[in-house]
Amino acid sequence: MRSTLRTLVLALAAGSAGLSWAQAPAAASAPAGTCEEQAAARKLAGAAKNSFLKKCNADGAGAMAACEGKAAEKKLAGAAKNSFMKKCQADAASAPASAAK
To answer: Span of the secretion signal (predicted)?
Structure first.
């Protein structure tokens, strides 16, 4: 209970300081994969996990839609589209939230 409360307080403090999850320390941002896998690697639980998952999934959905739009503008298909989507999503994940267009 105490560690969960501490995690929640830290998550709220980071959020109020204007930090995004993508700007977490390198050790915490190292895991790749699904949002669930990232939450497990960070040992999040309870409200902190729910908050992280909500933001992570929203960011992923937004990046996916933006990348789909760019791929459509370039009229990409097949392997070229897959390659572009992979790179686009990786770039979106590594860019700060305020720099996203």
So the answer is: 1-22
